[in-house]
Amino acid sequence: MKIHGFNKLTLLDYPGHLGATLFLGGCNFRCPFCQNAGLVLNPEAEPFIEDTEVLAYLKKRQGILEGVCVTGGEPTLFKDLPLFIENLKALGYLVKLDTNGSHPEMIRSLFESGLIDYVAMDIKSSPENYDKVIGCRNFSMDAIMESATYLMNCGVDYEFRTTVVKELHSESDFYRIGEWLHGCRQYFLQAYKDSENVIQAGFHSYSYEELEVFVQILKEQGIDAGIRGIDV
Ligand code: SF4
């Protein structure tokens, strides 16, 4: 497993908990609006942090930090992820997994082994537009559907979230997502934020008021939707 970033203190990444965040390199998607272009496209060029260094720091912070957020890139690509998380659990940490949902078997195995306490899964778009938004042609939705259904039924704490991009999403996507994920627990919309680190430049965000329209569409489908990470 390749750790390429370590945020030693975060109030934001793990809802309700003081935590740390680990960034793993590599991803099987190529979302053009991705904020971690370096981690996704060329992880080998990013700084590398030894597992032992991370675990030693977390051992010192036992009782102060409560949770560890494992993000990417896409963490579920790593076969040794369960082994690494076992070390975090041995230190007493809650573990949150951020995932694009493309490896349902890994999500299932982690939860059934008691290794994850919270999952944040990206819902990139409506099923019909997924391949456009993730930058991968002829993408099969089977794994994404399986992960979403599993999270909605397995009993783990979870959220779904969508980074909303003006050029990539429209009202019809949220009507379709509402039909698909009807009955899900929590759903957050996040406005796209431009930065120097995106895979493809030139995208824009919707306004808060425009995002509220999408939230309303989801709420009409019985989804507890909200907006996160935008200044009003
Ligand atoms: S946004 Fe997430 S899923 Fe998409 S390319 Fe970046 S790391 Fe991968």
TrEMBL record:
PANTHER family: GLYCYL-RADICAL ENZYME ACTIVATING ENZYME YJJW-RELATED, PYRUVATE FORMATE-LYASE-ACTIVATING ENZYME. Keywords: 4Fe-4S, Iron, Iron-sulfur, Lyase, Metal-binding, Oxidoreductase, Pyruvate, S-adenosyl-L-methionine. One of its GO terms (molecular function) is [formate-C-acetyltransferase]-activating enzyme activity. Its EC number is 1.97.1.4. The gene is pflA_2. Its cofactor is [4Fe-4S] cluster. This is Pyruvate formate-lyase 1-activating enzyme. It is an enzyme of class 1 (oxidoreductase). Pfam families: Radical_SAM (PF04055). InterPro entries: Aldolase_TIM (IPR013785), NrdG2 (IPR012840), Organic_radical-activating (IPR034457), rSAM (IPR007197), rSAM_sf (IPR058240). The keyword S-adenosyl-L-methionine applies. It comes from Robinsoniella peoriensis. Residues 12-224 form the Radical SAM core domain.
